[in-house]
Design a protein that fits this description.
With 196 residues, the protein is of the alpha+beta class. The protein is 20% helix and 33% strand.
Length: 196
């Protein structure tokens, strides 16, 4: 029914019948599914950061939520990447909340998708200056401080630190509310332990 980026861990939903496919497709189209991810990013996204208030497409909501609203489209020169636009792209909304900080070098964040575009979380986090740890495409050139706890674990992390943690939807046949959660994989847990 949907995809997650290569090297992102976590949950997917697969339809086993035409009825399930059509019912789930409608929920994807009207953005009524609940999808949340956890990630580890460079720096600490903070609603009190005046720099963030000046980033186009960034807004703030109650509870310390950073709302990123842009349009996304293929990058002009690199067709494997997505780029943030403010016209002539596809509408994309990501809500980000910091769960845990590791000094000022990194943070564990929760990301909720209102829309589901290719590379959406990764592109949006790079747009606000907080690319994901290990992201070879959008992580940027931000250097993790050598003296920070977990520096070696960060350098050796072999993928973007992004995990599709929860998935909720209405079962398209039974009408029952379904909620699924995926535990963090071992490499992600080791990264967090090293940063702590």
């Amino acid at each position: 029914m949907h995809r997650i980026d290569k090297d992102t861990s976590g949950l997917l939903v697969v339809a086993k019948s035409d009825a399930a496919h059509h019912g789930l497709a409608a929920q994807f189209a009207d953005h009524s599914l609940e999808r949340s991810y956890v990630a580890v990013c460079h720096g600490v996204p903070d609603v009190g950061d005046p720099r963030l208030a000046g980033v186009k497409g960034v807004g703030f909501e109650q509870g310390g939520v950073i709302r990123i609203t842009t349009q996304l489209a293929r990058h002009k020169t690199d067709r494997q990447r997505q780029a943030v636009l403010f016209q002539n792209g596809r509408h994309a909304v990501t809500r980000v909340m910091t769960i845990e900080t590791f000094g000022t070098a990194a943070a564990l964040i929760s990301c909720k998708l209102e829309t589901g575009r290719t590379h959406q979380i990764r592109v949006h986090m790079a747009h606000i200056g907080h690319g994901l740890i290990g992201d070879p495409t959008y992580g940027g050139r931000r250097k993790f401080p050598d003296r920070q706890a977990g520096a070696e674990a960060v350098k050796s992390f072999k993928r973007q630190a992004l995990h599709a943690k929860t998935l909720g939807f209405i079962h398209p046949v039974s009408g029952k509310e379904m909620q699924f959660e995926s535990a963090l994989p071992d490499d992600f847990e080791r990264l967090l332990s090293a940063l702590r």
